[in-house]
Amino acid sequence: MEDYFTVDIPVFVPKYDENTKYGWSKYKDNLWEVLRKTTDGYCMYCYDSIWINGQRRGQIEHGIEKANSRQ
Questions:
Q1: Which of 30, 12, 32, 34 has the alpha carbon at shortest distance from 22?
Q2: Taking 70 as the threshold, does the pLDDT of residue 63 lie above it?
């Protein structure tokens, strides 16, 4: 019998504020904030911690769908 494990990753649905601008360069901090609020500090794809000791780590494009990014 092979060893394996299952990771139960919740479904994350970002809640974008219609009055807030989002983008990859000028408004990247807004994307980080949506990601933090949506996932409680974890990547929504790999579930790795994206905040360690109050510092952001990782790449934002790994956590926010480009289709939902308005520049």
A1: 30
A2: no
- CB-CB contact of 47 with 7 (8 Å): yes
Listed in sequence order, the residues at least 6 apart from 57 whose beta carbon sits closer than 8 Å to its beta carbon are: 49, 50, 51
In angstroms, the first-to-last Cα distance of the chain is 50
Does the pTM exceed 0.70? no
Confidence at 65, pLDDT banded by 50, 70, 90: low
To the nearest 10°, the Cα dihedral for 42, 44, 48, 52? -30
At residue 32, the pLDDT reads 83
CA–CA gap between residue 14 and residue 35 (Å, rounded): 7
Non-local (6+) Cβ contacts of 12 within 8 A are: 38, 39, 44
Q: What is the pLDDT of residue 28?
A: 83
